[in-house]
Fold:
Amino acid sequence: MNKAVIIALDFKNFEETKAFIDQFEESLYVKVGMELFYAEGPQIIKYLKEKNHKIFLDLKLHDIPNTVKSAMKNLARLGVDMVNVHAAGTIPMMKAAVEGLIEGTPEGENRPLCIAVTQLTSTSEEMMQEQILINETLPNTVLKYAQFTKEAGLDGIVCSALETKEIHEKLGLDFVTCTPGIRQASDSVDDQKRVVTPEKARELGSDYIVVGRSITRAQNPVETYQLINKQFLGL
Ligand SMILES: O=C(O)c1cc(=O)[nH]c(=O)n1[C@@H]1O[C@H](COP(=O)(O)O)[C@@H](O)[C@H]1O
Structure:
């Protein structure tokens, strides 16, 4: 498993994204989410691929199995490295997502990794119990959703780094944990509830950390990225 820091490109449009990306000389692992993809569509993926960056296309699909399968078939043609769904869509929907990816991936290419969001890092245990009406602890809910995800044939989950250790213990080190909600101790947590530092995420065994605002809003994004990279990879 290649561990990596994934930079969330939560920008309004192509111009803002290009201005950010142009500051970096190295090849990055970046995440394109709803904001940027809905503004620019597949051309933003094409641009980032041409620049040799790896891409996590984070559209968090959650619909009936037939719709998710067809959507994934189209996303597979974009040649990204990773995509995601919501595990709450249930096992049949997650199986359909993988089927769509397999069908849509051009011959000779690897299908993108497919991971499932368990509980958003902006959700606390209290919110989950009172507003999503799940009468369980948050770690148990993440573990159960992760088991369903594995059963459906996906490659891993999105969770908080706080849950990573147990997930790897119970589901194996090959089962990918991609963990947003990353902040330096001095950063504002914003809308995130389950927050972990890059060093702690490394200790807990996250495979990927997703970092947005801590890098994109930094005075010097390149230096901040390099620092977080060192902290996470233990260099
Ligand atoms: O799937 C995701 O990437 C995701 C899942 C989750 O549970 N929490 C979460 O924050 N994210 C994404 O990770 C990024 C975190 O951004 P920052 O809070 O700015 O670091 C955002 O682009 C979110 O959409």
User: Anything to note?
Assistant: The radius of gyration is 17 Å. The longest strand covers residues 54-61. Residues 8, 10, 31, 33, 58, 60, 84, 117, 120-121, 158, 180-182, 190, 192, 210-214 surround orotidine-5'-monophosphate (CB under 6 Å).
